[in-house]
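Lab channel / #folding
Pinned by the channel admin:
"Please post every new chain as: sequence first, then the structure tokens as a reply. Keep commentary short and put observations after the output so the thread stays searchable."

First post following the new format, from NK:
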Amino acid sequence: MAVLEQVRQRAHDYDLLHFHLDYYPFSLFSRQSTPFVTTLHGRLDLPEHQVVFATFPSIPVISISDAQRRPVSRAGWIRTIHHGLPERLLTPQPITPTYFAFLGRISPEKAVDQAIWIAKRSGIPLKIAAKVDAVDRDYFESEIRKLLAPPDVEYIGEISDGEKSSFLSGAIALLAPIAWPEPFGLVLIEAMACGTPVIAFNRGSVPEIVEDGLTGFIVERKEEAIAATDQLSWLSRGAIRRRFEERFTARRMAREYLAVYRSLIDKRRPRRSTHHAGEFLAPSIAGAFAEKAALKKSRRSGTKVAFNGEVTRQRNQ
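Reply from TO:
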């Protein structure tokens, strides 16, 4: 809250403020004149959200998927902007796929136990590259550890971005049997970046990300997932990579955010005459992947951009 108050005190220095702090800025910044927008990254189906968005129905917000909007359809949605990755961060590697992959986080809502069941019934080894947060440690110890039986089920632990290309390229498919309304599954597009098909449960944003029969298969239950494994050979890993490049790059995401910025600035009244271009405050964009692309554009246009509280100044010559 102290940081938000510091930003509010300087709000008049900027043409636009961009927040990634859930609904915390709503009340404070609705009482000042500088336009602001908030990207919501979490689930919105909890009771507290109904009250918040009923109280602030006109606050401009951006969703990371259309599915994320459903529980609070009357919020002030202005656009859905899917996440993106730098185009060359993850790439296909010349590795023969030999196993199923599970990537991300071990928790009840990610349902790694379902991935283990699917892999065992399919007769294909499963490699699990996932972290265990402190809040999920008891779940891991009581429910999951006993299911880890190498070599059929191998737990690798958390891996870095530098390791993901090899890990995903070596996978026959990424298994994502999620058990919650996931706002956006970043691991899905990480797999696509490597040309790896995805078998995912039809929950949350999955139908917006996975193109059934092209970049993977969307199923309702684990029995359907097993049936989908027989169809994986129909998919082209090259086509999957191309769809990633067309739909989920950081450059595309940055362009869409910049369009939102311009739209909100253009609506501002009265229009300032002392600035040549927009000045944006964006504490973070998911994974910080869009920041470099947006920063390059801002430098070309002579703007001042603040990412994660660090201001980069560029003045028109």
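NK: The two ends are 37 Å apart (CA to CA).
TO: also worth noting, Confidence is low (pLDDT under 50) at residues 272-317.
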